[in-house]
Write a structure and sequence with these properties.
The chain has about 60 residues and is an alpha+beta fold. The chain has one domain. Helices cover about 15% and strands about 15% of the residues. The chain is built from two helices and two strands; from the N terminus they run H-E-E-H. The chain has helices spanning about 5, 40-45, and strands spanning about 20-25, 30-35. It has a two-stranded antiparallel ribbon with strand order 1-2. Strand 1 (about 20-25) and strand 2 form a beta hairpin. The protein is globular, with a radius of gyration of 11 Å.
């Protein structure tokens, strides 16, 4: 993942200049996600397949 993409929401691509971003670390990789998409990460992680490596093994809350 390049530096510019890493500083944007992994779902919508919005940057820190547009929205606040949460930083998270998963499997040694730093990721960013905006507040609008945190519920997706929590409740529907399967929708992030292809965006986050290994997310297919996560269980929804």
């Amino acid at each position: 993942m390049n530096d510019t993409k890493n500083l944007a929401c992994l779902v919508c691509g919005k940057t820190e200049e547009e929205v606040p971003l949460f930083k998270l670390v998963y499997r040694g990789e730093e990721l960013r996600i905006c507040p609008q998409h945190v519920p997706l990460l929590i409740h529907e992680p399967q929708k992030l397949v292809g965006k986050v490596e290994g997310v297919e093994n996560m269980n929804p809350a």
